[in-house]
Sequence to fold (106 residues):
Amino acid sequence: MFSNEPVQNWAQILDEADLPHVYFITFAALLSSIFSVVLPWFVTQFVITKLAYLIIPTEDADFIVKQYLPELKVAVKDIKLTRAEADTVVEKFIGMIMKIIYAFLW
Fold:
């Protein structure tokens, strides 16, 4: 999609792309996925459900809780990370959050 385009066209390409532009769902799905591989499932489900209905619009929260989480549970059921791998994922997640916060503050 980008390989043959100059950088100055990338924003327009993204805006016109046939993909969801609902970032509430994107970030909720990313957070859910990270939690699901690092934490036990019951903790992931509880935390994501509470956060979704607290932070994002109800329609998006319904999608995350009622559609995405059940599918995610099936997708990650066989993923077992070692403690070192989980620590690496958490470190990268914290770094990502710090960059997002910095971007909003900048």
